[in-house]
Amino acid sequence: MISNPLWQWVFTLIFGPLTAYYLYRMLVSAVKNRRQLEAVSFLLHTLMSIGMLAMVWPWWDVVPAKAQLTVFALASLWYLIIVVLSAMRKVDEISLGGHGTVHQIGHAVMMLSMTWMLLSMSGGSGTESHGEEGQGHSAQDHASHDHSGHTALDPSGHGSGHGSHSLMHEPFVFVSGIVITALLVIASIWFLLQFFRGVKGHAPDHRYPLYRPDMISNSLMGFAMAFMNLLMYWPSALG
Q1: What residues have CB less than 8 Å from 182, skipping those under 6 apart?
Q2: In the predicted model, is pLDDT for residue 198 greater than 90?
Q3: What does the pLDDT read at residue 46?
Q4: Cα separation of 51 and 118, whole Å?
Q5: Which of 164, 137, 168 is nearest to 3 (CA)?
Q6: How far is CA 115 from CA 43, 124, 126, 225, in A?
Q7: Cα(40)–Cα(86) distance, integer angstroms
Q8: How far, in Å, CA of 35 to CA of 165, rounded?
Q9: How far is it, in rounded angstroms, from Cα 181 to Cα 185?
Q10: pLDDT digit string (tens) for 11-38?
Q11: Which DSSP helix (H) or strand (E) runs through 184?
Q12: 94 alpha carbon, distance to own chain's centre
């Protein structure tokens, strides 16, 4: 969790509207357009946006880490399957709302990043750590984890429990974090380019009137997630 009030409100102002938009798109896809695969995609994005929003506030502590990890690991698997099916032309772009194979790769990267963040902040196990289980742990271990299994995230390097120091000294976490963040930035840039492509009149046809808002929202989501990943490294980079 992030304890710096500035970043808490910055991310709230980003993920709050994104949550509302994705929820709206899910309802449009399911009720109006009758595109169930597209509706599932927006449902997963809604959950991801809610998860990112919750992650910056103290009440995230009460959300079980294992439940979140399970949801987003399954969501990652879902998108990987959709990527394969789309590449094999087993599903068409109409049922996916005009979001082709490359779009689906971008969505998969976002879900994998969410899964990585949860794994990193739960010490890599994804298991929940309750008070009675931590009796034999040192005070430093206790300070690095909250009672739901999360490692507190404090980009300012101050405040209560921050696990970023221990996280960034794990080689696999560090390297994989760089890779995930780089992929997020690439995906976000691609979504942004698709938005500008739509502005210039090269977007998919009239069947997808919300294509451009979809692209800019995905780009914003990806950039915000990448920035939050960078904040996990920031205290380590400072020293």
Answers
A1: none
A2: no
A3: 97
A4: 10
A5: 164
A6: 16, 10, 10, 12
A7: 15
A8: 45
A9: 6
A10: 999 999 999 999 999 999 899 878 888 9
A11: helix 171-199
A12: 25
Residue pair 96/82 in contact by the 8 Å Cβ criterion: yes
**CA terminus-to-terminus distance, the chain:** 20
pLDDT digits (tens, 9 = 90+) for 56-110: 888 888 888 889 999 999 999 999 999 999 999 888 877 787 788 899 999 999 9
pTM: 0.78
Number of neighbouring beta carbons within 10 Å of residue 201: 6
- Examine the pLDDT at 199 and tell me if it is beyond 60: yes
Phi, psi of 145 (to 5 degrees): -135, 145
Helices (H), 56-170: 65-87, 101-121, 139-144, 164-168
164, 235 Cβ separation under 8 angstroms: yes
Reading the block at residue 49, the tokens are 């946006």
The β-bridge partners of 181 are none
| Separation between Cα atoms, residue 194 and residue 91, nearest integer Å | 21
Q: Decide if 115 contacts 69 (C-beta within 8 A).
A: yes
Contact 147, 130 (CB under 8 A): yes
Residue 41's pLDDT band (cuts 50, 70, 90) = very high
Amino acid at 75: A
CB 8 within 8 A of CB 56: yes
Give me Rg for the CA atoms of the chain.
18
